[in-house]
Specification:
Layout lengths: L2 H4 L13 E4 L14 E6 L16 H8 L2 E3 L2 E2 L6 H10 L12 E3 L6 H17 L4 E6 L1 H9 L4 H23 L5 E6 L4 E2 L6 E3 L9 E5 L4 E6 L4 H8 L5 E5 L18 E5 L4 E3 L7 E3 L6 E3 L2 E2 L13 E4 L7 E3 L2 E2 L3 H9 L10 H4 L17 H13 L1
Length: about 400
């Protein structure tokens, strides 16, 4: 199946945002041969559902990347479908301890601007030309911001999609004009779902006495609760029959989430049904400043829902000398990206939950599996992203 024959059924997504440029000024030791430089675009909130919208014929950058490279037919995020867990899993393939490492270069997050993003990408390509970088990662969040503020189906989010397309188109054109052998990978963390603060809000204070709760972490689709001593069973009983959400004890979390055994998981995990929002009360609902007059507007989109639902599915696009052309890949999981990045950068991966059997299908027949004595390279990137975003 080719991308050319399947483009009309494809779906693409939203707005982009400059955040992060990570460059490594040396290659890890023990490579079988020099790997091609890797440019990684991290697009927060870019949903698989956006591929195939009515404006797709105008998306020349994304369309060309798909038609001359690889598109995965869905990328299932890890649970919970939030920013940090998924970027962590992208760079580790699992829940792996992060060691004390630092990026060789980190450009601080500079704010929302397609121009700044393109400048960061141009800077990365210049380092590739000079041979001073093996990999660069650029983070951009307008996809998520437009979707959260205005809704996944809003015109603002659609305009963001056009900005993303222009960035991708300019990047591939520049790579060609400079005659660089660069692998370009665009990957997102999760999609977004429509929410409605008028009709679909669950207020926990209506069901639980406040003195039962020691700590509540997060609000939205996934909420974590720690109870005061001896109150866990009472809180569970009070919540277990509520409509539009499910409460799990740690040992009841579905196995498919690969979540319940985590050492930081709360005793009780609350998961909202699609489109519902869990909060302590309406006063705690998240609003955003809409305009210069500081007026507040409700969010219209959110993440964190069941990672199997369509609206949460992420995106993986890849283009470059090591990838097949016009190839539609079977659905992948976020943890599968880790062994792909390892082999593209010439690194022996640490133990992980990803599938090399799945992602090696994306690579061209001329690609050689790299061998290396370095075993912590991608842990570097996980820690680098955390450092640059905090």
């Amino acid at each position: 199946m080719t991308c050319a024959s399947q483009w009309k059924s494809l779906r693409f997504g939203p707005d982009f945002y400059l955040g992060l440029l990570i460059l490594c000024n040396h290659l890890p030791p023990g490579l079988s041969k020099d790997p091609h430089p890797l440019l990684l675009i991290l697009a927060e909130g870019l949903s698989e559902m956006y591929l195939g919208e009515g404006s797709r014929e105008k998306l020349t950058g994304l369309r060309e990347m798909a038609m001359h490279g690889v598109l995965a037919r869905g990328l299932m995020p890890v649970f919970p479908t939030l920013f940090y867990p998924n970027y962590y899993s992208l760079f580790t393939g699992c829940d792996v301890a992060v060691f004390k490492v630092q990026p060789s270069f980190c450009q601080p997050y500079s704010g929302r601007s397609s121009v700044l993003t393109q400048e960061a990408i141009a800077d990365a390509l210049q380092h590739f030309q000079q041979g001073s970088a093996a990999m660069a990662a650029v983070y951009y969040e307008d996809v998520a911001l437009a979707g959260r503020h205005h809704g996944p189906g809003s015109e603002a989010r659609r305009a963001a999609l056009a900005n993303l397309d222009a960035i991708v188109r300019n990047t591939t054109d520049t790579i060609r004009s400079l005659r660089l052998d660069v692998n370009l990978v665009l990957v997102s963390d999760h999609g977004l779902m429509d929410i409605d603060f008028d009709d679909k809000v669950i207020e926990l204070e209506n069901y639980i006495p406040a003195h039962f709760i020691k700590k509540q972490m997060d609000k939205g689709a996934t909420v974590n609760l720690w109870t005061n001593d001896g109150r866990e069973d009472e809180v569970y009983q009070l919540l277990k029959d509520l409509s539009n959400m499910t409460v799990y004890r740690r040992n009841e979390v579905p196995e498919r989430f690969h979540y319940g055994a985590g050492r930081f998981v709360s005793p009780l995990t609350l998961l909202a049904d699609e489109g519902w929002f869990i909060t302590w009360n309406r006063a705690a609902l998240p609003y955003w400043k809409n305009g210069g007059d500081s007026s507040l507007a409700p969010n219209r989109g959110w993440d964190g829902y069941d990672n199997s639902v369509l609206s949460m599915q992420a995106v993986l696009l890849a283009w470059g000398p090591d990838f097949k052309q016009s190839y539609i890949a079977p659905p992948l999981h976020t943890v599968d990206v880790y062994p792909l990045l390892c082999n593209l950068t010439g690194v022996s991966p640490l133990p992980h939950n990803g599938s090399w059997e799945k992602v090696h299908l994306l690579l061209s027949s001329s690609f050689d599996i790299r061998t290396s004595t370095c075993t912590s390279w991608l842990i570097f990137w996980a820690m680098a992203i955390w450092m640059c975003m905090t």
